[in-house]
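quick one before i forget lol
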Amino acid sequence: MGLTLDIGCGPNKQPGAIGVDRRLLPGVDVVCDFECGLPFRDGSVASIYSIHSIEHIRDLMSFMAELYRICAPGAQVYVRTPYYMSRNAFVDPTHVRFMTEKTFEYFSFPNCYGLRIHFRVVSIEYNMRKGFKWFPEFLQRPLRRHLWNVCDELAITLEAVKPCGE
């Protein structure tokens, strides 16, 4: 059984996880700049949480390659991030990117960047705003893509497929 990490946890670490953050805050177990690498062995991690932290990553390609390196085969990566059409994606001046449900397709294999990584999308959930969460999915989809501030956040679960290319 591998480790469970909460990357960018701040003071809100997931129960049972090792908290990893850039700053020493309550609940943080490992302080490191995770854009420069993660201090964990290859294939040692069974699950990773990235709750409202991935939108702060400048070099997403290298970060995802680093996550893949430390993931055991079948490891689950749970990402929660502001949806690109939400005002929450824009209000924090430390956000450096906007995420959609299509963003994570670039981390499957093969990919157009030559990365030797393969994350499979397991599930996608949307946190719709109050007035829109009761609409059926066939209406929510065009609403969240074409109207501003209908969907607050995206929750996506990825699985590390190893070896790469399977």
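fyi Residues 3-160 form a domain with the Rossmann fold fold (CATH 3.40.50.150).
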